[in-house]
Amino acid sequence: MSGIKRSFTLKTRPPDTDPAPGTAGSPSGETLLTVRGLTVRFGGVTALEDVSLQVRSGEICALIGPNGAGKTTAFNSVSRLVQPVAGAIAFDGADLLRARAGDLAALGIARTFQNLALWPGLTVIENVMVGAHSLGRTGFLGAPFGWGVRSEHRELTERAYAALAVLAIQDVAFQPCQGLPFGTLRRVELARALVTRPRLLMLDEPAAGLTQGDVRDLGTLLRALRDELGLSLLLVEHHMQLVMDIADYVVVLDSGRNLLSGRPDEIRDDPRLVEAYLGSPR
């Protein structure tokens, strides 16, 4: 796997002040995402009850828990696919509960999905460019006359190719997605998220369906994205070895509630974590 190509135009939106050299990826940054007291109900079923978490700038935060713990519901609440009945979600001081899912790219948030949402008949680069559609500047008045369309298309194409180059899959840029290896398709979806130049990258089960070797490469890649592009990451993941290898901070949910949280070395052998996944001994 090639290293991150910093010369390309994928630098994330800069904060007010750039971090000092060597501090990218430090989990000691200011809080970027805050979820407080989140409660979600579907009919008479409470999926989340008073759930809280935070992601600091430059941090990889993992959200884990057994099946049915509420991880996906919490994730979808942050990405504005689910509306909570109580609680607060703030991103860099902005109230996300006032935002729509389509607003997140402009705010600096991008996400991937557990199930690949790619168009098989489109080329790889076309699929990646779809991720940048919300960043287009050509208005409905100018589009019929072609005002700015060609220059904007060229810019988005270059940005999409840059995202593919960062992930070392630019060699398949003009091939259809159909028929490509699953691990490559995972990277295509990741490139589609990166093309918006997010500050917070949300990953839903990024290791699902990958081989053990691909999972190791993914861990190396995610750390490199954090360190060299200045990203913060929030991931939902079942692959515990990946979580323990790359996460700076882990939040554990069980039955829709916070169970425990801390650094991987702090929670790895906690009896509550073992019980949540394996049940209490008889």
From TrEMBL:
Keywords: ATP-binding, Nucleotide-binding, Transport. Pfam families: ABC_tran. SUPFAM superfamilies: P-loop containing nucleoside triphosphate hydrolases. Gene3D superfamilies: P-loop containing nucleotide triphosphate hydrolases. It comes from the Bacteria. One of its GO terms (molecular function) is ATP binding. This is ABC transporter ATP-binding protein.
